[in-house]
Design a protein that fits this description.
By secondary structure, the protein is an all-alpha fold. It has helices spanning 2-34, 38-51, 56-68, 72-85, 89-105, 109-122, 127-143, 147-159, 167-194. Among the domains are: 20-70, no CATH class; 72-146, Alpha Horseshoe (Serine Threonine Protein Phosphatase 5, Tetratricopeptide repeat). Helices cover 81% and strands 0% of the residues. It starts with a helix and ends in an 8-residue tail after the last helix.
Length: 202
Amino acid sequence: MKVLVSIMILIFVCQLALAQDSNKDIETGNNYYRQQQYDKAEGEYRRVLETTSGDKTAKFNLADALIKQNKPDDANKLLGQLNVTENGNDLRSKAVYNQGVILTQQKKLEESIEAYKETLRLNPGDQEARENLQKALLELKKKNPPKKQEEKKKQEQKQQPKPKISPRDAQQQLKLLEQKEKQVQERLQKNSRTGNALPKDW
C-alpha cells in the first residue's frame, strides 16, 4: 500500500512540474502577444499543447494569436473544439464570441448572429456580444431588406397612375377604334343581306 501511495505522489509531482512549465510558456506567449509578436506567441502556445494537448488556456490564446495573423479557419477550428469540450460557461462563451467575430469578418452574417446569440445564452451580461449582435443584425437588414418592404414597393408601383397620353395620341387611338367598329358594322350588314335568308320549309 505504501508503494502505491508513493507512485501517486510522484505522478502528481510530475504533473505539477508540467503545469508550471505550461504556465511559464503561456505567460511567455502572452508577453509576445502584448508586444504584437503574434507568430512568437503562437509558437509558445503550440509548445504547451505539444506537452499538454488539453490545455484550454493555451488553445484559446493560440486561437487569438491565429486571428491576429489572419488565419481565421485555423482559429475557428480551435475555438470550435473549446465550444464542444468546455463545460464552464465562461471560457465557452468567450470561444463562441470569438467565433462570431471571425464569422462577421468573413461576412457570414447569419452564422455570426447565431454565435452572438449563443454567447448571450451562455453569458447574458456580455455587453460586447450584445453590441456585435445588433451590428450584425443591422448589417444583415441592409444586405437583405425585409420582404414586406419589397412587397410594399411593388404595390406602390402598381398603384401609381399610368402616364397620360397626349391629346394627339388619344385622337389617333379613337380614330382606329372608330374604323374597326365601322368595319365590324359593314361585315354584319353584308352577312345579314346575303347569308341570313334561309329557305322556308313548307
